Amino acid sequence: MRKPIRLIVAALALVAGVVAAPAAHAAPNPHQRGPEPTEASVTAERGPFAVASQRVTAFSHPGFKEGTVYYPTDTSQGTFGAVAISPGFVSPEATVAWYGPRLASQGFVVMTLETTTGADLPEARAGQLLAVLDYLTKSSPVKNRIDPSRLAVMGWSMGGGGTLRAAQLTPSLKAAIPLAPWDLGVDFSDVRVPTLVIGADNDFIAATGLHSEPFYESLTVEKAYLELENAGHFTFTTANPTIAKYSISWLKRWVDDDTRYDRFLCPPPAGNGPVIQEYRSTCPY
Questions:
Q1: Per residue of the chain (285 residues), what is the pLDDT tens digit?
Q2: Is the dihedral of CA 207, 101, 110, 86 positive or negative?
Q3: Quick check: 205 and 233 in contact, CB under 8 A?
Q4: Where do the structural domains in the chain lie, given as residue ranges?
Q5: Does the annotation count 157 as an active-site position?
């Protein structure tokens, strides 16, 4: 009888050991940058990284006119994702300049673009956005700070239309953020890039019912639609904490694969408030 009893005791000890063993920990995310995010950190004027900038002079590189590169000065945490940003129709780079230091201070290399001509249509802007990413990753002075596998595009108005077209052309992009996007007669169901569309309820230039909403509905990938309350087409040209919060969170989630930012995107925030008119998404991701 003693041998069976010893076997039973040994088996029970083994089971107890398995139950008591600590759960395996997931491998750390190699792309995670910066401290634990908070509501204050994603709405702040500046994030945790100090930022420097460098001007790219006119026609010094093929594919785009000129622009400004903003980048974190800290290299101790490894490389960063990169974001190219386009302004809108007949609008200078200055209209999207605030996004540069705002996003770079959160841990991205960012270039705001001056388009070749103010009248460039979305298709041309898409090509310029992609040319900027090519420049940043291959020949810019900050190329060694960038992970070329983690790239994103962003743009306002016709630059937003160009953002969607760039995503359409380049499925390897990690994220796209069209801001009050304008384009005509384009179906974006073939886009394979996680996309955050941000519109404004009082936009009479790129009305959400004709542009942002149909673009969002046509997408078949991970996506979100944010409509700002009491906002217009030019709301996107000056610093805005709501635009910053969701743009930063989207880029962090998809460019850096940083799930710490999920909580700012999922569950969707309540709409019909003083800031957000509506929010839709494919949450949970």
A1: 444 444 433 443 433 343 333 344 456 789 999 999 999 999 999 999 999 999 999 989 999 999 999 999 998 999 999 999 999 999 999 999 999 999 999 999 999 999 999 999 999 999 999 999 999 999 999 999 999 999 999 999 999 999 999 999 999 999 999 999 999 989 999 999 999 999 999 999 999 999 999 999 999 999 999 999 999 999 999 999 999 999 999 999 999 999 999 999 998 776 656 799 999 999 887
A2: positive
A3: yes
A4: 50-281
A5: yes
Spatial CA neighbour of 183 closest among 164, 198, 209: 164
**Superfamily in which the 50-281 domain is placed by CATH:** Alpha/Beta hydrolase fold, catalytic domain (3.40.50.1820)
Catalytic residue among 233, 249, 256, 281: 233
Which of the residues 91, 157, 212, 247 is marked catalytic?
Answer: 157
Catalytic residue among 203, 211, 212, 256: 203
DSSP string for 260-274: GGGGGTSSPPP-SSS
DSSP helix/strand/coil, 128: helix
Is 203 labeled as catalytic in the residue annotation? yes
Whole-model pTM? Answer: 0.90
